[in-house]
Design goal:
InterPro entries: RutC-like_sf, YjgF/YER057c/UK114. The protein has about 130 residues and is an alpha+beta fold. The chain has two helices and six strands. It has a single domain, classed as RutC-like (60s Ribosomal Protein L30, Chain: A), CATH 3.30.1330.40.
Length: about 130
């Protein structure tokens, strides 16, 4: 059995690069990542949303790799974004890191995150058949 990312033709098509859902069969190994933010290893935080997004995707890649997973194993992403005007730069960076088949995704505009400097936070779930 394989992991299946899918779109449902009975509802509106996705509004961007994401799937409507993911089916993870029994026996698959999953990893749930905590929200990743745009903080460099030295603790500094860039002002630019695009740069924060690059850091976030580097963090996601590192956390996944530490357990034998890769971007292609992501089945669900959740984006929490403070300013909708940052979406074009966020999407541009995302599209360099992740490609089709697109994982299921949610985008939530929020008033604030845990620190004032954070422009976005990204959570994800990855799955693969068998051991990672």
């Amino acid at each position: 059995m394989t992991i299946k990312l899918f779109d449902c033709t009975d509802v509106a098509a996705p509004f961007g690069n994401y799937a409507h859902g993911a089916i993870i069969p029994p026996g698959a190994t999953t990893i749930h990542l905590a929200g990743q933010v745009g903080v460099r290893p030295d603790g500094s935080i860039p002002d630019d949303a695009g740069e924060q997004t690059r850091i976030i995707f580097a963090n996601i890649e590192a956390v996944l790799a530490s357990q034998g997973f890769a971007f292609g194993d992501i089945v669900k992403m959740s984006y929490f974004v403070v300013d909708a005007e940052d979406l074009p730069s966020i999407r541009a960076v995302r599209d360099t890191a992740i490609s089709a088949p697109w994982p299921a995704a949610s985008l939530v505009l929020v008033k604030a995150l845990g620190r004032r400097e954070w422009k976005l936070e990204v959570e994800c779930i990855a799955a693969r058949i068998g051991e990672a």
